[in-house]
Amino acid sequence: MLQIRNLSKQFSGTYCLTDVSFDLRAGEVHGLIGENGAGKSTLVNILSGALPATSGEVAMDGRVRAFSAPHDALRAGIAHVSQEGSLVPYLTGAENILLGDEPKAAGFFISSRKLEAEAQALAQRTFPHRKLDLRTPVEELSYADQKVIEILRALRSEAKVLILDEPTASLPAEDKKQLSALIRDLAERGTTVVLISHYLHEVLELTDRITVLRDGAHIVTMNTSDATEELLVRHMLARSEGATSTQGSGTRQLGKAGAPRLATHYLTGAAFQDVSLELAPGEVLGLVGLVGAGQIEFAEALYGAQPWLGGQVVLNGAPLTALTPRKALSLGICLIPDQRMLKALQADWSVRENLSLIHLNDVSLGGTPLVAGTTERRLSREVVKRLQIKASSLEQPIQELSGGNKQKVSIGRWLFESTGKDYQVVVFVEPSEGVDVGVKAEIHGLIRAMANDGISVIIVSSDLLEVVSLADRVGVFRAGRLTSVTDVPNEDALISAMAGGN
Amino acid sequence: MTAIPVTTSQDAARRRTSSFFRRYSTLLALAALFIGFSIFVDRFLTPTNLVNILQQISMLTIVGIGLTFCFAAKEIDLSVGFVAAFAGLVVTTLMSTYDVAVPLAIAAGVGVGLVIGLVNALLVTLIGIPSLIVTLAMGTIVGGINFMISGGRAIYGGIPATFTYLGQGRIGIIPVVSLIMLGLVLLSYIVMNHSFFGRYVYALGGNPKATQLSGIPVRRYRILALVLTSMFAATAGILLAARLGSGQPTAGANYLLDGLATVFIGMTMLRPGMATVLGTFFGALFIGIVNNGLNLVGLDSYVQDIFKGAILILAVSIVSRQTTLKLL
Questions:
Q1: Could you tell me which residue, A145 or A471, shows the higher pLDDT?
Q2: What does the domain layout of chain A look like in residue ranges?
Q3: What was the pLDDT predicted at A472?
Q4: Count of H-run helices and E-run strands, chain A
Q5: Overall fold of domain A2-237
Q6: DSSP letter string over B219-285?
Q7: A247-344+423-502 — its CATH code?
């Protein structure tokens, strides 16, 4: 019914979507899955007219369609319910459903009577078995009701294809069940539903067919009856072809005999529970898990960037009961976070200003609270040289650098006026996020060098090959818990562990 | 796989020119204005008049520099005008009614600014009310107190000459207020451009999350920025009282809007989108020259207001094309 043919999308030189082709059938529920950055949102944005494709085409009922704006797609019958929600909180359900399409009275005024009747009729037609209060401001309704209202709004223009982006993300279990029933109901009456979700069991339960994307490429479209959770995870993550995922540094001799550098005891935060592990000096520990499994939040908590709700962290035998980034810094714990432009760098600042921010005290002008400009420039230049950061000058705005060089600056902030050898624990989250192959290798070299200097390193990454090739041991997170720690990591075993199979 | 960004020297040259105009177009406009007035307005380009301009902008510049601190932290303070009047009233009342020594009275006036700034800052950082709302309410409160303590009348009599000297005296041909103002500009310039404090305040204004994750006590610096704003407003108010020789409940009424204008005009130059000390200083100079020139031409003050308003809108349009202004 809807064919996607050779669709590609290029953003400033890099492909986010490469030559994707598959089709949607009338009345099916079609799951669309992939890790963050796999290209799901880009694909959906092209389908719903929010983004133009670089090449390729979309055909509906055999006719090639090009949408230049969301309302074009809507008119053609493709509706998109986004993840964040797009309701006006203080308008009623009925008002939201018909927003911008209100029935007029006397040509000018909105007839609230007609409005309610129309919205009610649409609700009756679409979800005959669901009781909905359309007269209450939507902010007072449950999440499930709000989602239903969003779906009704999307459907008011007779959508043939309904794209639901993470519809159950923050729903309580009972509401999830109701929404699932509604989705099946819609499909049975001929609407094609595209379901994007990180919850694989939900996708397996609800869909007829599933498409997996990875790194912008179409991996597979399969019947749900042939799929298992483990198979899907394998498709989402495995990068085995062409890469030798052999030999980690697992064979290295570690000073494991002595006391651990860092130990957590039942550490609990908002997104992880009762995590206990030990980290030896000079050890590289990988942490992996599906999106939302809690491994990133756990890693951030070790730097005090996430609150601890319970448990304890022991650093070199000294127990810590609370931690702030400032305290972590003084204890020699570093965090090189993911999403560097959000969590590490100042977009408007130069390379120099970004590099020196953490260690400004080290470039003090003779102990005063003033910055010694020449020292700052000298030390910045040293970091730029050591990490081979490609910038036209120290004063170049960081926004103008490539992803890889931004990441180098994010790391270089910690190596400013310090070789980094004094650090106790360095936590990397997605160290090669949006970084090209060459820089990735350099970063990996840097991580190995740190470990050889006796620093304990934690790497959280969704790139399993990266983890396998760097880590001595790998811990797997599932639903907020550390479920296993393996000594000789291999990609296959990790995928099974992440999916929860055995 | 590795994408190499291609930049031709032409591109680079174009970027450099465009960034030159982005940084300096307002300064060029200021220079053009200055030259225009010099040519077409009699008595504009005379030493006396230039010194006059410097004197006229002194208090406004101090308020503007104060606002620059909180703008750098992406906060705003709408109470500056009322705080200035309050500090002026406190100082004059202490001297005229209670015979308090001049230095003590001045310290009390600046202290009043410190306390009000601290209350603002704590409401913003601890309770999390946007500074726009906190300082709007605080301005209203302080404005009420101003009338309460003064009974709506000016406070004068018994004010020592050493105090009025600050506002009226001159060293050579240069007014003392202008020297104080230039000193504060220099000090603030060093603080904002060369000290840890300045770096941290700009950092938290630019990206609070990244700043906190860099181990910087974000809350402390946000508080300090708001306190400084209020202290500078109080200082301007004290100098205004010294110039007028009296405390007035409505003094400094135009400081808020004019002060904001200096910051916004400043944000169009040097580092576009960022509030800088030098930018604000030039912004104040801009407003001072416009006021003075139009005055000499013989235009009424309400016509000047129309010009000022237009310049402000122009400045903000330029700034908001470059960055998204977020004040709430």
A1: A471
A2: 2-237, 247-344+423-502, 345-412
A3: 92
A4: 17, 22
A5: Rossmann fold (3.40.50)
A6: HHHHHHHHHHHHHHHHHHHHHHHHHHTSB-TTTTTTHHHHHHHHHHHHHTSSSTTS--HHHHHHHHH
A7: 3.40.50.300
Question: Could you give the CA distance from residue B292 to residue A111 in angstroms, rounded to a whole number?
Answer: 58
Q: Which of B195, B210, B212 sits opposite A370 (nearest CB)?
A: B195
The closest CB to that of B1, out of A344, A361, A436, belongs to A436
Tell me the CB-side half-sphere exposure of residue A158, using CA atoms within 13 A.
2
Contact B199 A371 (CB under 8 A): yes
Contact B20, B273 (CB under 8 A): no
Taking contacts as CB-CB distances below 8 angstroms, the residues of chain B near A343 are 209-210, 213
The architecture of the domain spanning B39-322 is: Orthogonal Bundle (1.10)
Say yes or no for a CB contact (<8 Å) between A437 and B274: no
CA dist A26 and A186 (Å) reads 11
By C-alpha distance, the chain B residue nearest A13 is B3
Question: What residues of chain B lie within 8 A of the CB of A344, using their CB?
Answer: 210, 213-214
Give the closest of B3, B206, B216 to A349, CB-based.
Answer: B206
Per-residue pLDDT, averaged over A355-380, amounts to 91
Same fold yes or no, A2-237 and A247-344+423-502: yes
Cross-chain residue pair A370–B5, CB shorter than 8 Å? no
A223 touches chain B (CB under 8 A): no
pTM above 0.90, yes or no: no
Residues of chain B with pLDDT under 70: 1-19, 21-22, 321-328
Calpha distance B135→B137 (Å, rounded) = 5
- Contact list in B for residue A413 (CB cut-off 8 A) is 214
CA B194 to chain A, closest CA, distance in angstroms equals: 5
The answer to whether residues A49 and A68 touch, using CB atoms and an 8 Å cutoff, is yes
Q: Are A479 and A274 spatial neighbours (Cβ–Cβ below 8 Å)?
A: no
Instruction: List Cβ neighbours of B110 (8 Å cut-off, separation of 6 or more).
Output: B87, B231, B234, B235, B238
Q: Which amino acid is at B186?
A: L
Longest dimension (CA), chain B: 81
pLDDT at residue number A14: 66
% of chain B beyond a pLDDT of 90 = 68
Pairing of strands A473-478, A284-289: parallel
Among B194, B195, B199, the residue with its CB nearest the CB of A357 is: B199
Distance CA B23, CA B27 (A): 8
Contacts of A324 in chain B (CB under 8 A): 215
